[in-house]
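Lecture 7 notes: from sequence to structure.

We start with a single chain of 167 residues. Read the sequence below before looking at the structure.
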Amino acid sequence: MAESVEVLITASVVPSYAHPGDAGADLHSTEALVLGPGERALVGTGVSIALPDGCAAFVVPRSGLAAKHGITIVNSPGTVDAGYRGEIKVTLLNTDLTSPYEISVGDRIAQLIIMPVIRANFVPVDRLPGSQRGEGGFGSTGFSEHQAAPTTAQADASVADTTGGTL
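Now the structure, written as tokens:
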């Protein structure tokens, strides 16, 4: 079982966990507004916290809002540092192309996840040590059994494209 940490809070509605074992505590809107298709808005939660050193809070989207209505958070996850004492606000975005979304006072709009963080001691070097993955980036770990490998024609086109040929 994970340990808990005491977080001091001032809030119009105190964040709460919907179910035992949930990672995210719900944040509620303190204002009513309508997000038109493609619009974003900075929405207040009425929550200010004091985290202990060694912790940070991360504001993340609610999966139901994202799946059902296309409502997400622009800077997700939003990071709340231990030293920040202002109100936590959420930059919501309506990704739906046709439907506006109405937010009422008290609606659950995001989740707050509290996590321990490690401060890095950055050490400049001329060269990094090698690794099995190396410099491979997005998609470099290959294909799963559920994905089709590229056809020979696709692979040949990819090689031609990297050598200056046309597709």
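The CA atoms of residues 123 and 129 lie 13 Å apart. Keep this in mind for problem set 3.
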